[in-house]
Amino acid sequence: MELAIIVPLLAAAVQSGTPILYATLGEIVTEKSGVLNLGVEGVMILGTLTAFVVALTTGSPVLAFVAAGVAGTLAAAIHGMVCLWFRGNQVVSGLALTILGTGLADYLGNAYVGRTAPGFSPVALPLLSEIPIVGPIFFNHDPLVYLTYGLPPLIWYGLMRTRPGLCLRAAGEYPAAATAAGLDVAAYRWFGILGGGFLMGLGGAYLSLSYTHLWTNNLTGGRGWIAVALVIFAFWRPGRAVFGAYLFGGIMALQLRLQASGTQLPSSLLLMLPYALTVIVLVLSSWRRGASEAPAALGVNMEPAD
């Protein structure tokens, strides 16, 4: 296969994988605190709609991007209230959040279907974009893609090398021991939930501000569920999440190009490819050592104080 075909496909993989990467990093932060959030899809779609409406109303993509993060934080706060205040089942709460988010976005977004809003456009980075092969793949995108290049190492450093990050991990691994050491486990879990929700909202914003510049129902298209699976695939490591997000982005880009080329394969089969890969990844990751890498107290609610 010629470079003229491979390079654009890899560049499209980076673009398609960017919203998944935002959401995956957000879920990693949340799960590291010991809280399982299966509502990523609902949080993302609310961020997508918020970004679109704010961009359409104000004409400012930057403000819309931040507003989407805030919307994701507020949506995640619902999950936090159920899990931390009322000690409800985290799986049920996450599923309910997905249903709530997708339903609310479809209802509120009906008036905007088919409309376009200002967003971010590709900006070639000087010198870097001129590097053969690497330049067109990584350095000819919009600013929201470039932002993801720094997020994984920043999150890794925050979780592994800073006191707040270590405390957050302690809340997810040994909450009883962390409490005995004087840490406010609930506060760190709140931080994980809200911080993760902010990143999920940013992932949703990318879809309406950079990927499509328009609104249509179900714009996230199951990317939130892919992000949940990628956390396991990445063994809860931000660095591996980058590879996983671009892998899934590449599959999405490939199936779109196959459809556009007029392939004889059924379109339903092509649309199934990313989700079939999700199932395969989950099986392989669990079969190896993925389950053992999860935070020890993941999904376990805190015991009420005496």
TrEMBL record:
GO terms for cellular component: plasma membrane. GO terms for molecular function: transmembrane transporter activity. Keywords: Cell membrane, Membrane, Sugar transport, Transmembrane, Transmembrane helix, Transport. It holds the Pfam family BPD_transp_2. It is a multi-pass membrane protein. CDD domains: TM_PBP1_transp_TpRbsC_like. The chain crosses the membrane at residues 36-56, 63-87, 93-113, 190-212, 224-248, 268-287. Its main location: membrane. InterPro entries: ABC_transp_permease. It is found in: Cell membrane. PANTHER family: ABC TRANSPORTER PERMEASE PROTEIN, SUGAR ABC TRANSPORTER INTEGRAL MEMBRANE PROTEIN-RELATED. This is Simple sugar transport system permease protein. It comes from Desulfoprunum benzoelyticum.
